Amino acid sequence: MWVFSTAGCRWLGAIGSLAVTVGGWAAGTLPVRGGQGLWEPRGPGLTAAGAVLAYLGLTLLIAAWWRYGRLLAAGAADRAGTTLACWVAPLVLAPPLYSADVYSYIAQGAMVLEGHDVYGEGPAVLGPGDLGADAAASVGGHWTHTPAPYGPVFLVLAQAVVKLTGGAVVPAVLGMRLLALAALALIVWAVHGLSGGRPGALWLAALNPLLLVHVVGGMHNDGLMIGLVLAGVLLAVRGRWVAGSVLIGLAVMVKSPAAVALLFVGVLVARRTGGARGVLRGLLPGAVAAAVAAAATLVAGTGFGWLRTQSVAGTIHTALSLTSDLGLGLGLLAGDDPEAVKGAVRTAGLLVALGIIALLGWRAWKGRVDPVLGLGLSLLVLVALSPMVQPWYVLWGACVVAAVAWDGRLGWFLAVLCAALTYETAPSGHTPAYGFALMGVVLVAGTGWLRWRDPVGSVRAVGA
Questions:
Q1: Ramachandran bin of 79, using left for φ above 0, alpha for ψ from -120 to 50, beta for the remaining angles
Q2: Of 354, 186, 154, nearest to 250 (Cα)?
Q3: Phi and psi (nearest 5°) for 327?
């Protein structure tokens, strides 16, 4: 049937994306004020209908994406870039979806323009008459008083958006979406180069519904970090490790987990030289990135406060953090001070993650693991053992793995995991209980399918 062909998947996914957007106009993460009559809170009936439409559209998008991946695994030829454009287009003019973080970004950009210490104060410092005040009013809960955990490169970009738009919510949000689209383009270019042009790699990375709704729809700056890391790794693989290290240094100045990439770029440099001299040369990418970070901080003029705010996100308990959940459970059993126990378990988790990352780096140095795959695995381990985990964090490692191993067992498991995590958050940015239930159903069904059926073999059995 046509609907099960690559062209059919393209248009079914576009319809799903359109439904997510239309539903989001009623049930998205709408601003408290400053919506200019476009993005305004609706009545409860219309909001509920919009949420249902968005969930139905999301399900259609995921189903189309899954079928599309199976067809590509079976050898179907198609223009993945065209499919991506069809799926992204409806989201371009959507209100913020699945998260209120973009309002924090705008408010922090305004704080820089207004001369506030963005690493010492939260968006709540912006008063009613200040630039970016409307965006600050829409910042979610805890983040209202939280200093920025982001590097100066991202803050400079947010500052530029606020300056160009006057801080008005709708234009500023659309300006941040342009940055998200630029990040998506960078991801596409880098994954295409690292994978040798295999469309399946773009399927798991760029066409991934988790990326579409959270990077394009939600405008999370993780997309920019991922794009810069992938571009830097691509340049390093091609022998241009200095330029690659510069890009990774810029990525660190967006979000600090990008620093993991320096270990594996160092491995690439060290292996090319070999011996003790190679080990010494392997330290140079870190030195280049450190110089970039220092220069970016000085040029931005925001100060080095980002060094002390890297742990602020860890003060929030997220249900997806295994170490936080385990620590809290053990702490409650201990009875006296659950927070102290939780903190100890979180720290232990990070230490274990660092140990595994070091081991992967060693194996990459010895030639037992591809350095790019080692980077992807390291980022996944870091997320799994992090004290604070959001669903889109999985994209850090998934996009890297996609470039080199999209069609293996790991790639398909990540596809299942991403599909499941897409349901965890509602279009409004809240995390309702039914979202976790839907996530669990998809995860169990998907892993069961992987357990009993070979992804590629099953496609060949039914045919394209």
A1: beta
A2: 154
A3: -65, -40
The SS3 of residue 215 is helix
CB contact burial 249-265 (16+ within 10 A = b; e otherwise): bbbbbbbbbbbbbbbbb
- Give residue 464's pLDDT: 33
Helix residue ranges per DSSP H, 238-385: 241-252, 260-273, 275-281, 284-300, 322-334, 338-365, 371-384
Helix (H) or strand (E) holding 319: none
Distance CA 463, CA 315 (A): 50
φ/ψ of residue 393, rounded to 5: -65, -30
Report the pLDDT value the prediction gives residue 463, as an integer from 0 to 100: 36
DSSP class per residue in 146-169: PPP-S-HHHHHHHHHHHHHHTT-H
What are the two backbone dihedrals, phi and then psi, of residue 394, each rounded to the nearest 5 degrees?
Answer: -60, -25
Using the CB atoms, write b or e for 98-130: b if 16+ within 10 Å.
Answer: bbbbbbbbbbbbbbbbbebebbebbbebbeeeb
User: Could you tell me the two tokens for 399?
Assistant: 């996009």
57 within 8 A of 16, measured Cβ to Cβ: yes
Give the separation between CA 307 and CA 190, rounded to whole angstroms.
Answer: 29
Q: How far apart are CA 276 and CA 281, in angstroms?
A: 9
CA 83 to chain centre: 21
The total number of residues shown for the chain amounts to: 464
* 3-class DSSP state of 331: helix
Q: What angle do CA 139, 140, 143 make, to 5 degrees?
A: 85
**Widest CA span in the chain:** 68
Regions of the chain short of the pLDDT cut 70: 1-3, 453-464
The single-letter DSSP state of residue 35 is: -
Q: What is the DSSP letter of 148?
A: P
Cα-Cα-Cα-Cα dihedral sign, residues 307, 313, 315, 321: negative
Distance CA 278, CA 88 (A): 43
CA 219 to the chain's CA centroid? 9
Instruction: Report the share of the chain in percent with pLDDT over 90.
Output: 77
Region class of 274: left (phi > 0), else alpha (psi between -120 and 50), else beta:
left
**Do residues 170 and 34 lie in contact, with contact meaning Cβ atoms separated by under 8 Å?**
yes
Q: 314 and 324 in contact (C-beta within 8 Å)?
A: no
DSSP 8-state code for residue 130? S
| Spatial contact of 337 and 331, defined as CB atoms under 8 Å apart | yes
Q: How far apart are CA 306 and CA 26, in angstroms?
A: 36
Question: Which pLDDT belongs to residue 453?
Answer: 63
Cβ pair 80, 9 in contact under 8 A? no
